[in-house]
Amino acid sequence: MSVPDTHAGQPRKAAMAAWIGSALEYYDFFIYGSAAALIFPEVFFDESDPATATLLSLATFGVAYAARPVGALFLGHFGDRVGRKKIMVFTLILMGISTFLIGCLPTRDQVGTLAPVLLVLCRVLQGISAAGEQASANSMTLEHAPPHRRGFFTSFTLSGTQGGQLLATLVFIPIAALPEEQLMSWGWRVPFWMSVAVAVVGYVIRRKLDETPAFEQQAATEGVVKLPLAVLMREHWADVLRVIGGALVASVSTIFTVWALSYATSDSVGMDKSAMLWVGALANLVALAAIPLWATLSDRIGRRPVYLIGAAGSAVTMFLYLWAISTGSYPLTLLLGIVAFGVVYSAANGVWPSFYGEMFSTRVRLSGMAIGTQIGFAVAGFAVTFAAQIAGPNGDDWSAVALFTAALCVPPVVAALSARETAKVPTEQLGERTASQAPQPAKVTA
Fold first, then answer.
1. Which end of the chain is less congested by CB atoms within 10 angstroms, N or C?
2. Cα Rg for the chain, rounded, in angstroms?
């Protein structure tokens, strides 16, 4: 399918809009992760039982992931009905508002148990927003991209998430260095208040982006389907299952970002908070470069081999990273953190936007990606809570957590091995093989 002249230059604009929007969105999302590990156990939960407070705080991190599948059902439906652009704008504004409100919440000392209830409510809104953000941004970039460079252009969405994580970490480094009293009273709120910029900047960037040629052609010729979910489940159910299994690889990110940070700064290891935040910052900086390189490689040799390097390799390197933390050696932790998260995990992270998106046809692509990824991500989000339980009463059984993380890397490997290679398939033919195996539904124009 040739790209109309009216869309000249849109692939780069779409990639940049996806990058900046995802960076701003995931800045919001991951400052919560840092706060859940370092701040919220004392601010929102019972300080008299630190272990339980930490467990509950990490559970609130997973709440957003539980809300994601619900958000995916609605946002995926409307994204395939009304277009990618409107969903991209909506999710950005919702994330900005919900994150700002977290910074305004009263503490447990001020309002008692109402405080964690309000925290969970805001976290649910964050999860709903994130459910539609990546799927809409990935669909937008994939459908604007030249067919031979879909991997490279769609990788900008995940580069943006790494940029957001990097920014969130850099913001938290000076915050974590504040005196304890200032940190717990007002300091932790500042990163959340800064999210006001998300709605403003994101709206300005994304409102100028054109809808994708693929979606416009679908709407103008065959028409959009009335119930994308019904078509998705009838014609693409196997690929939805593959995406769910593949999305479990995100457990590597949540374990690295949240549980490992909490473990390293616990009394059993005793690493400095700011120093460990720098591990995450430098690993994300390396990931910013690694993700587009892995994605470009996938355009040449295929999605499956690159994805498998990331999924299988992460099972090994995360074991080494957690071992390094247990030794208390900061140089070793820094080195293996960069290798595990910055390099190896980036292979899967950089390729999945194109790999998953290419499994579906245009008419159900956003629904397929949103529902499949968000169910898998829901498990990944609660992996942090499970890890806290698996680590034992003292929270120091890192080997059990490493084995748990490795086990969660098995379904992504199976999903990739069973999937079709789609790197060389023309954009207009994506999803056709699966669709041809089922009766063609009637097309209903919106």
1. C
2. 21
